Amino acid sequence: GDVTVLVTGKTGIGISGASGNGIEATGVTGNVTVGTSVSRIVADTKGGQNGIIATGGSDVAVYTGAASVTGTAGAGISATQNSSATDADSDTVTVNALDTAIKGTVGVNAVNAGGDAGDSVTVTMLGTTAIEATDGDGIYAESVNGNVVIDTLNTIKSASPTALDGNGIEVLVTGAGDVHVNGTAAITAGAQFGNGMTILASGSGDADIYVGDTGGGYAGAIVVSTGAGIKAWASGAGEINIKTTAATTINGTTRLTFGI
User: Fold this and answer.
1) What is the pLDDT of residues 28-42, one digit of tens each?
2) CA angle (189 as vertex; 114, 82 as ends), nearest 5
3) What is the pTM (predicted TM-score) of this model?
4) For residue 116, how far is the Cα from the chain centroid?
5) For residue 29, what pLDDT is reported?
6) Total Cβ atoms within 10 A of residue 20
């Protein structure tokens, strides 16, 4: 059956899982939903591991509102569709944050293991949402044959200078799914080997990579310590298309790195 978690009020200290997760929702075959587009999680949520973790074998969605979501030793928000079945059904992973302060070792972790073309991943930042990762990627998204769509606003910060690895945004597609990264978020990657964006289409399929394919180009500044501003690599037959606005600053030891 389906699993749904709703938190409609914001009182006191909110939700705290001292040694575990702030909110944990797990399903097997049904949909797993934490918050909805009309009833978002509005309580401050903190976990000793993950702030919010949602896992299931069908649609998995997390909707947050005006609150903070913090994972002390894990992700701020983690959403995973863990069934690798190819069943002609579209099983989607959605993280949609409105006016949310998200913080964790990884800010947002969104993974879809499904093998169908409709098994997609969508991460959307709305309002005043900001993402901070203390020891990893600001946003990590992964799919097989489904598309990955990331829309950003405000700021994405990844990993302090003492951390070894952490990208502002990292996307991995292992099959034929396309990648679309758009928005205006200023990205800061402070890790020793972190890039502003790392996008890898590692499969042999026709997986295309697009950065800035809406709104006239990606419009957020990208500042990194020692890595590339944008690193995009396609192993199969896919194309790489990157467009930034005229006002966008991209700073790094290498500004752009491409590979096909």
Assistant:
1) 889 999 999 999 999
2) 15
3) 0.95
4) 20
5) 87
6) 13
The 3 state secondary structure assigned to the chain is CCEEECCCCCCCCCEEECCCCCEEEECCCCCEEECCCCCCECCCEEECCCCEEEEECCCEEEEECCEEEEECCCEEEEEEECCCCCCCCCCCEEEEEECEEEEECEEEEEEECCCCCCCCEEEEEECCCEEEECCCCCEEEEECCCCEEEEECCEEEECCCCCCCCCCEEEEECCCCCEEEEECCEEEECCCCCCCEEEEECCCCCCCEEECCCCCCECCCEEECCCEEEEEEECCCCCEEECECCCCCEECCEEEEEEC
Say which residue, 88 or 39, is predicted with more confidence: 39
Identify any residues that bridge with 96 across adjacent strands, giving them in sequence order: 63, 124
Residue that is written with structure tokens 């790195």 in the block = 257
The amino acid at residue 6 is: L
Residue in the block written with tokens 């009833």: 39
Nearest to 173 by CA among 198, 203, 150: 203
